[in-house]
Design a protein that fits this description.
Elements (H helix, E strand, L loop, with lengths): L3 E12 L2 E12 L3 E5 L6 H9 L6 E6 L2 E2 L10 E4 L11 H11 L4 H14 L15 H13 L5 E5 L7 H18 L2 E6 L2 H7 L2 E6 L2 E6 L1 H6 L4 H6 L4 E4 H4 L9 E4 L5 E2 L7 E12 L3 E8 L4 E7 L12 E6 L5 E2 L7
Helix pairs in contact: 2-3, 2-4, 3-4
The structure holds adenosine-5'-diphosphate (ADP).
Length: 340
C-alpha cells in the first residue's frame, strides 16, 4: 500500500434532527478492500454517497488521493459506484451497457470496444458482449454492472450492497470472486454491507458503524478476536457477554464486562490451566457442522458453547448437568461504554 486513497475528516451529514453521519474521521489506503459494516440506518450509505459526491456534507472534508474534493461535483470525482439494483439498459447488449459511459465521454469506438472487452474479461465474462441482459443470470448481470464501473478505470470503486439481490449460494461465490477481481485490478474498493460474514470474508479492514459513527476499525481477525465493546462483539459473530469480576481470574484485575466466543467454551472435564463453571443444559441446537449447547450456569448467566460435530464431540441432552470450561486468555475485556 503506497498512499491514502480516501481521507474523511470531521465528516457530518444531518437530515433535520438526524445525524446520519456524525463527525467521522477515516482513512482508506490505496488498493485496500475496505468495508463499512453496520445495521440498517447506521450511516453507511450516506458515507458512500458523500464520497461519491451525490450528497454534500453538513461539515467536514473529503479528500481523494490527497486532493480536497468536498466541493467537486460527482461527475468530476475519480470514483464509480456499483449499486444493488444494477439497472442495466435492457435494450442494449452487454457490450453496449459496458461501453455506455465511454460513449457519453466521446471515447472513439475502437477504444471503447477494446476497453469494454478488457473490463468484461476482468469480471470473467469474455464472449458475453453480444448478449442482452435478459439472457443472463443474476450473478452475471451483477458482473456486467461491475464491468460498467471498471471500464472507467476509477481509482476508487464504491459498492453499495452489490450482492444483496443474490441468493445465498451465489452470494458466497461472488464474495470470493469479487475479492479476487479486486486483487487483480488493484483498485481501492469501499464496500457497504450489513452482513458481517460478507465483510469478514472479503475485507482487508472493516469499519463497524453504529448511529453515524465508527465503533471499531480493524482487520477481520482483529474485530472477531478483539472486539472493542459489546456492540461490536454482538454484531460481528455471536458472543457470550459475562461479568469479568465474576468470571475472569482475580489476578487479571478485570472487573468490567468480558466477551467470550462460543467456540472458546468447552464442555466436559476442564483441562489444566482452564477455569470452569457448572450448569444445566437448557438447549441443544444442531447446526450441521457444529452443535450449539446453551447452558444455564449455576452462578447465573446462560452461555452458548459451540462444538464442531467431529466424531469425538461430547454428546449431551437437555437437562444434563455439565461443566463449561475456558482458558482465561479467551475472555476479551470490553470497554464499559457503548455509544447509545
Ligand atoms: P445505512 O446505509 O447504514 O442503512 P443510511 O446512511 O441510509 O444508513 O441512513 C442513516 C440515517 O440517515 C438513517 O436514520 C436514515 O433514515 C437517514 N437518512 C438517510 N438519507 C436520508 C435522506 N435523504 N433524508 C432524510 N434522512 C435520511
Amino acid at each position: 500500500m503506497t498512499g491514502t486513497a480516501i481521507r474523511l475528516s470531521g465528516l457530518s451529514k444531518t437530515y433535520g434532527d438526524t445525524a446520519a453521519v456524525d463527525g467521522l474521521d477515516l482513512e482508506v489506503a490505496d488498493g485496500e478492500f475496505f468495508s463499512m459494516l453496520g445495521p440498517s440506518g447506521s450511516g453507511k450509505t450516506t458515507v458512500l454517497r458523500l464520497i461519491a459526491g451525490f450528497e454534500r456534507p453538513t461539515a467536514g472534508t473529503i479528500e481523494l488521493a490527497g486532493a480536497d474534493v468536498t466541493a467537486v461535483p460527482a461527475h468530476r470525482r475519480d470514483v464509480n459506484t456499483v449499486f444493488q439494483d444494477y439497472a442495466l439498459f435492457p435494450h442494449l447488449t452487454v457490450g453496449g451497457n459496458v461501453e455506455y459511459g465511454l460513449k457519453v465521454k466521446r471515447v472513439p469506438a475502437a477504444t471503447r470496444r477494446a476497453r469494454a472487452e478488457e473490463a468484461l474479461a476482468q469480471v470473467r465474462l469474455e464472449g458475453f458482449a453480444g448478449r442482452k441482459p435478459g439472457q443472463l443470470s443474476g450473478g452475471q448481470r451483477q458482473r456486467v454492472a461491475l464491468a460498467r464501473a471498471l471500464v472507467n478505470r476509477p481509482t476508487v470503486l464504491l459498492l453499495d450492497e452489490p450482492l444483496g439481490a443474490l441468493d445465498l449460494k451465489l452470494r458466497r461465490e461472488m464474495q470470493l470472486e469479487l475479492k479476487e477481481i479486486q486483487r487483480e485490478v488493484g483498485i481501492t474498493f469501499v464496500f457497504v454491507t450489513h452482513d458481517q460474514e460478507e465483510a469478514l470474508t472479503m475485507s482487508d479492514r472493516i469499519a463497524v458503524f453504529n448511529a453515524g459513527r465508527i465503533e471499531q476499525l480493524a482487520t477481520p481477525v482483529g474485530l472477531y478476536e478483539q472486539p472493542a465493546n459489546a456492540f461490536v462483539a454482538g454484531f460481528v459473530g455471536t458472543t457470550n457477554l459475562l461479568d469479568g469480576a465474576e468470571f475472569a481470574p482475580a489476578s487479571s484485575g478485570i472487573t468490567g464486562p468480558v466477551a467470550v466466543r462460543p467456540e472458546r467454551l468447552h464442555l466436559g472435564t476442564p483441562a489444566g490451566g482452564t477455569q470452569s463453571a457448572d450448569g444445566v443444559i437448557a438447549e441443544v441446537v444442531y447446526l450441521g457442522a457444529a452443535t450449539h449447547t446453551v447452558v444455564a450456569l449455576d452462578v447465573g448467566p446462560t452461555v452458548t458453547v459451540s462444538q464442531p460435530n467431529s466424531a469425538s464431540a461430547h454428546l449431551a441432552a437437555r437437562g444434563d448437568r455439565v461443566t463449561v470450561s475456558w482458558r482465561p486468555d479467551d475472555l476479551v475485556p470490553l470497554t464499559h461504554h457503548t455509544r447509545s
